[in-house]
Amino acid sequence: MKDNKVTNLKSLISKVAEVNEISKTDSEIIVRSVITILLEEFQKGNSVKLGNFGTFKVYTTKKRNSRNPSAGIPIVVDPKRVVKFIPTGSTKETVKES
Q1: Residues 51, 62: contact at Cβ < 8 Å?
Q2: b/e map 37-68, b = 16+ CB within 10 Å
Q3: Among 7, 58, 57, which Cα is nearest to 31's?
Q4: Residues 83, 88, 91, 93, CA torsion sign
Q5: Phi and psi (nearest 5°) for 86?
Q6: CB neighbours of 2 closer than 8 A, spacing ≥ 6?
Q7: What is the pTM of this model?
Q8: Which of 74, 34, 29, 78 is nearest to 53 (CA)?
Q9: 14 burial type by CB count under 10 A (0-12 exposed, 13-18 middle, 19+ buried)
Q10: Which end of the chain is more exposed for a tag (fewer CB within 10 A), N or C?
């Protein structure tokens, strides 16, 4: 199995620049624009489907009862919106094969 390395924003920008043979400045503009667009869609509650990759869906969790682990007292956890990623079959296969 390969090392579990994390690709950060800087390395993603570099890789996009290299693959597309563009400057890192142009690549950064593109990558940051995509991130901004995704976040704007999530704020609206919209899902984003990227063909042959997967879908980012915005869900609202339900109000639930829990327990404060430090004090042991019951607490209520309010609903919140979260983003979940659902990979396509081809993405699952690519990850499985690695």
Answers
A1: no
A2: eeeeebeeeeebeeeeebebbbeeeeeeeeee
A3: 7
A4: positive
A5: -115, 110
A6: 98
A7: 0.77
A8: 34
A9: middle
A10: N
Distance CA 98, CA 93 (A): 9
| Token pair listed for 27 | 């690549």
Q: Which helix (H) or strand (E) holds 57?
A: strand 54-60
Residue that has been written with the tokens 């682990």 in this structure: 69
pLDDT digits (tens, 9 = 90+) for 45-80: 999 999 999 999 999 999 999 999 999 899 999 999
Mean pLDDT of 1-20: 85
Tell me which long-range contacts 45-48 makes (C-beta under 8 A, separation of at least 24): 45/81
